[in-house]
Write a structure and sequence with these properties.
Layout lengths: L3 H9 L2 H16 L5 E2 L11 H11 L3 H4 L9 H15 L8 E4 L1 H13 L5 E6 L4 H8 L3 E6 L9 H7 L4 E7 L11 H18 L4 E5 L21 E6 L12 E4 L7 H15 L6 H10 L7 H16 L4 E2 L6 E5 L5 H10 L2 E2 L1 E2 L8 E5 L4 H17 L2
Parallel strand pairs: 1-11, 3-4, 3-5, 5-6, 6-7
Antiparallel strand pairs: 2-8, 7-8, 9-10, 10-13, 12-13
Helix pairs in contact: 3-11, 5-11, 6-7, 6-10, 8-9, 12-14
The structure holds pyridoxal-5'-phosphate (PLP).
The site of pyridoxal-5'-phosphate has 13 residues, from helix 6.
InterPro entries: Aminotransferase_I/II_large (IPR004839), NHTrfase_class1_PyrdxlP-BS (IPR004838), PyrdxlP-dep_Trfase (IPR015424), PyrdxlP-dep_Trfase_major (IPR015421)
Keywords: Aminotransferase, Transferase
Family: Belongs to the class-I pyridoxal-phosphate-dependent aminotransferase family.
Length: about 400
């Protein structure tokens, strides 16, 4: 008599993690250098040295202070540092009260959905999408509604979103730079989305939140990432340092409730309530202190930029089609078989481990994570070539 929904999430497992586990087992059999695992979004760039320096400084604190509970929403100094950094970058006027520290973007998103959703609501995601969205949306009590991205560019298809908005739509999730396709949504696209959401709010007499999931904001290759609350007021921003500072195992991020939200004060309390209900209060104390010191440390994207160029050039020369990534560290490659799962199985025979697009709610493609060593990309090229040849 346990909870069936939770049982199903646990028993199904994440297909990305299953592939990574298979890769690890295979590496133990034939040597890690012979397996080309492109499955996980685990940063290959080390955390910047300032992180370790901040940790050493924090270790000088009395242990009861360092390891003690922080306030539920986080240390005032940490929330202040985040707000001040955002204000400097985006010309905003946020305060520490607008920021809630969390255990990574996973918690930021879970809290945000829980904070805004009522039973029977719908939350729109743009397919292909990060698969955990569905778990968090359904757990909040909403239905996850998939709206396809543009099938060629994989940009946000505003008309498709507009057509999917109903009286039950409570939120739309945007993720830019995007996992898995690497697209960055431009101001013009976001502005059209904002107009569509405002129109639907008037038509249905409802409130629709834009949930902006931004763990890859700083990982871009020349593209500018618009500040979403500047385009649409009813936006909640979910962020994490998992990618920008290469700290995925430390579980640190935040939710921002911008002052542009008409129901700002209630929403701040609802996020706090959701964090309380879900058990996501008091984000790791040591890493809140690290963020105070490292909030403005730039992300090191040089290695990803190199990997991106290497992978794109290599696969292009072999005749593969892909979406030119503007950000994040994934290449969205067209499968050589209409059945992406079948293509993945064939790739695996060549020790290549991308993620089939079915995992992201769309067919016919694979995601190749280039947050790996340069050497892995270089040595994988013979396998990509053999894979392509096997289809000729
Ligand atoms: N959102 C997207 C688009 C992601 O790719 C990830 C992680 O890969 C997350 C959210 C979750 O991030 P975190 O590890 O900070 O919980």
């Amino acid at each position: 008599m346990i909870n069936e929904q939770m049982y199903a999430y646990g028993a199904q497992k994440s297909s990305i993690r299953e592939i990574a586990a298979w890769g690890a087992a295979r590496a133990a059999q034939i040597g890690a250098e012979n397996v080309f695992d492109f499955s996980l979004g685990n940063p290959s760039v080390p955390a910047p040295p300032q992180v370790n320096e901040a940790i050493v400084r924090a270790l000088a604190l009395p242990p009861t202070e360092l390891h003690g509970y922080t306030p539920a929403a986080g240390l005032p100094a940490c929330r202040e540092a985040v707000a001040t950094s955002l204000n400097r970058r985006f010309g905003t006027g946020y305060g520490p009260g607008d920021v809630f520290m969390t255990v990574g973007a996973a918690a930021s998103l879970s809290c945000t959905f829980k904070a805004v959703v009522n039973p029977g609501d719908e939350v729109i995601v743009i397919a292909p999408y990060f698969p955990e969205y569905r778990v968090w949306i359904e757990t909040s009590g909403a239905t996850c509604v998939e709206v396809p991205a543009d099938p060629v560019t994989f940009d946000l298809d505003v008309d498709a979103v507009a057509a999917a908005l109903t009286a039950r739509t409570k939120a739309v999730v945007v993720n830019s730079p995007n996992n898995p396709v690497g697209v960055v949504y431009g101001t013009e696209t976001l502005t059209r989305l904002a107009v569509a959401l405002e129109e639907a709010e008037r038509t249905f007499d409802t409130s629709i939140y834009l949930v902006s999931d931004e763990p890859y904001r700083e990982i871009v290759y020349g593209a500018e990432v618009p500040w979403v609350p500047g385009v649409y007021g009813r936006t909640v921003v979910c962020y994490s340092y998992s990618k920008s500072l290469s700290l995925p195992g430390e579980r640190i991020g935040w939710v921002l409730v911008p002052d542009t939200n008409p129901d700002h004060d209630e929403l701040v309390d609802a996020v706090a309530g959701a964090a309380r209900a879900l058990g996501f209060v008091c984000a790791p104390s040591l890493f809140q202190r690290v963020i105070v010191d490292c909030v403005d440390v730039p992300a090191d994207v040089a290695a990803y930029a190199e990997n991106r160029a290497l992978l794109c050039e290599g696969l292009k020369a072999l005749g593969y089609e892909y979406v030119e990534p503007q950000g994040a560290f994934y290449l969205w490659v067209k499968a050589l078989d209409p059945d992406a799962q079948a293509f993945f199985e064939r790739a695996r025979e060549f020790e290549l481990l991308p993620v089939p697009s079915d995992s992201f709610g769309c067919g016919g493609w694979v995601r190749v994570g280039y947050c790996v060593s340069r050497d892995t990309i270089e040595r994988s090229m013979a396998a990509w070539e053999a894979l392509a040849k096997s289809y000729r």
